[in-house]
Amino acid sequence: MALDIVKAARDRMFVQEFDRRAKLLPHMAGAGYIDRLRVLDELIEEQVIGVDERHLVLGKIDGVEWIMSGLESGNEVIWTIAEIVDRRGHVVRKFDSDGLSQIGQIGELAVVQHLYRELPEPRVSQVKHVSQVDDSLGYDIVAPSLKFHDMVQLLEVKTSVRPGENFNLFISRNEYRVGLNNPNWSLVCVQIVRDQPKILGHLPITAISDRFPNDQDNLVKWASCRVTVPRKLLNDGLP
């Protein structure tokens, strides 16, 4: 219901038109006419939407607890609401890939736990969560490959709570350099969906390296890039 009301505010629907439509919609348990008016009142009270000259209008989401919580947990409906209301992205950008350190930790731990489950017992001790000791190495985890146990993989884990067909992340110049110089380096993408981490897949940096900027001289050098990876480019699971 909240999403429908926010869409009505985006379209600057007349309050009377919203009321008339709410009466005509199917009445289901917990989603009847009175329920829609209650949610409308709550959204107005929280200033997520407002009323301007008898029109519903968009408000703000900053500081609205249930929206902040939903963004952090990867709730797809709440992300849609937030992106409609927060038109310039001032708030949702804070929740973009690795925007919160605890989200990054959740993704890394999910990868470590997956390795523990899938690797043969003698190899489990070779899994090293190195970013907990040094986060400047250009990768987060050192582990045997799940496909070729004698091969050691360097895994740089990126975690996002943003739903959609594209995976957004930030990569540092150091991570990029290490990836180019080590063929056993992989970027691992983890999606948080309703507080649950899901490993979407992996890819080598060479799959997207042609998109990175080139320094023109020594006076200005890039330090970090925001990267959008279509999920269809990801290889399933871990390398």
Structural account:
- The chain is of the alpha+beta class.
- The protein has helices at residues 2-10, 15-24, 33-45, 65-73, 76-85, 101-118, 121-124, 173-181; strands at residues 49-52, 55-58, 141-144, 152-160, 166-172, 185-193, 196-203, 224-230.
- It folds into 2 domains: 2-92, no CATH class; 101-233, Trna Endonuclease, Chain: A, domain 1.
- It is built from 8 helices and 8 strands; from the N terminus they run αααββααααβββαβββ.
- The strands form 3 sheets. It has a 4-stranded mixed sheet with strand order 3-4-6-7, with helices on both faces.
- The longest helix has 18 residues, at 101-118.
Key attributes of the depicted protein:
239 residues, single chain, 8 strands, alpha+beta, Trna Endonuclease, Chain: A, domain 1, two-stranded antiparallel sheet
What's the arrangement of secondary structure elements?
Elements: H1 2-10, H2 15-24, H3 33-45, E1 49-52, E2 55-58, H4 65-73, H5 76-85, H6 101-118, H7 121-124, E3 141-144, E4 152-160, E5 166-172, H8 173-181, E6 185-193, E7 196-203, E8 224-230
Parallel strand pairs: 4-6
Antiparallel strand pairs: 1-2, 3-4, 5-8, 6-7
Helix pairs in contact: 1-5
Give a quick precis of the structure:
With 239 residues, this protein is α+β, with helices and mostly antiparallel strands.
